[in-house]
């Protein structure tokens, strides 16, 4: 398995200096021994649609672009249009995966009743995007996420019951499964054959309640997630892909959070 790190958190603090922030994320990930990175698909606009400019930076730091992250909207036709724009760009960057995430809300309540119609619509839309991805050698992976309509176990079950297994896979996240009330080891075992991409982050269970449960996310080893158990389940199911570490709210800074997680991957799981 290869370790990657998510770079979008570098892109939020310096106004319009996105190219500088992007390169800084690569520089720091490479320094810590990560083999690959992921970022949001809309970095395409930050580089004026120039994939070569990004590829030159990836080559400079000896990194791969593992995944471009695509945020779905409430407009299905717009999403398909954006997919036609983002997928060829992802292919130019050599990305083999594209995460899909449902629309996120930031107002209370964090937990809302399951809306089966919306979940099934996401599945149908994602199937089509997945078909488009497959034609470009990319796997589309739906990412269940807090404060969205595809989050809890019953919603994930409904989504996958309506997913085309030839075109749509899962990106399961240790932290989001935890705060959704699932045991991540059992969840990764249950959905093991459908998982094509993985997010690792830890959770402080004492901070997971309330309308902003993602504030409980921590670097690896600083919370309660059983990563050894998850890792063993992945191996059991023959997973040999990317483990991408992500942390939405670094306690100090991106570099230190990535360093703590890199040490954990090295010392505990034998990665990096």
What do you see in this structure?
Strand 3, helix 4 and strand 4 form a beta-alpha-beta unit. 42% of the residues lie in helices and 17% in strands. It has helices spanning 18-31, 43-46, 51-60, 76-92, 116-135, 153-161, 174-179, 184-190, 227-236, 254-269; strands spanning 2-6, 36-40, 64-71, 97-101, 139-142, 168-173, 195-200, 202-203, 217-218, 242-245. The strands form two sheets. It has an eight-stranded parallel barrel with strand order 1-2-3-4-5-6-7-10, surrounded by five helices. The chain has one domain (2-269): TIM Barrel (Alpha-Beta Barrel). It is globular and about 45 Å long. It contains ten helices and ten strands.
Number of strands: 10
Determine Rg (CA atoms, Å). 17 Å
Helix content: 40-55%
* Widest beta sheet: strand line-up: 1-2-3-4-5-6-7-10
CATH superfamily: Divalent-metal-dependent TIM barrel enzymes
Which helices and strands, and how do they pair?
Layout: E1 2-6, H1 18-31, E2 36-40, H2 43-46, H3 51-60, E3 64-71, H4 76-92, E4 97-101, H5 116-135, E5 139-142, H6 153-161, E6 168-173, H7 174-179, H8 184-190, E7 195-200, E8 202-203, E9 217-218, H9 227-236, E10 242-245, H10 254-269
Parallel strand pairs: 1-2, 1-10, 2-3, 3-4, 4-5, 5-6, 6-7, 7-10
Antiparallel strand pairs: 8-9
Helix pairs in contact: 4-5, 5-6, 8-9
